[in-house]
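User: Second chain of the day. Same drill as before.
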Amino acid sequence: MDKMIISRHARKQIKWRRITEKEAGEVISNPDRVEDAIKGRKNAFKLIGQRLLKITYTVENDSIIIITAMVRKEKNHENRI
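Assistant: Same format as last time:
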């Protein structure tokens, strides 16, 4: 994986939502699904345990910049992946 940089906003979201940096990296490096987002960004999704994690990131030069991180709690995760 390229160098991973976590934005200030994403760092707050990761802490508040109790996502580890390792989990965020795993979502990006081995996603269950990736979607295009605004401004050339990507949304990566991965089911880790009972939580569906969504990481929004962009690639600049040789770095992956994490913009935000979310946890999607849904009863039927299969519909989201």
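DSSP finds two helices and five strands in the chain.

User: Great, on to the next one.
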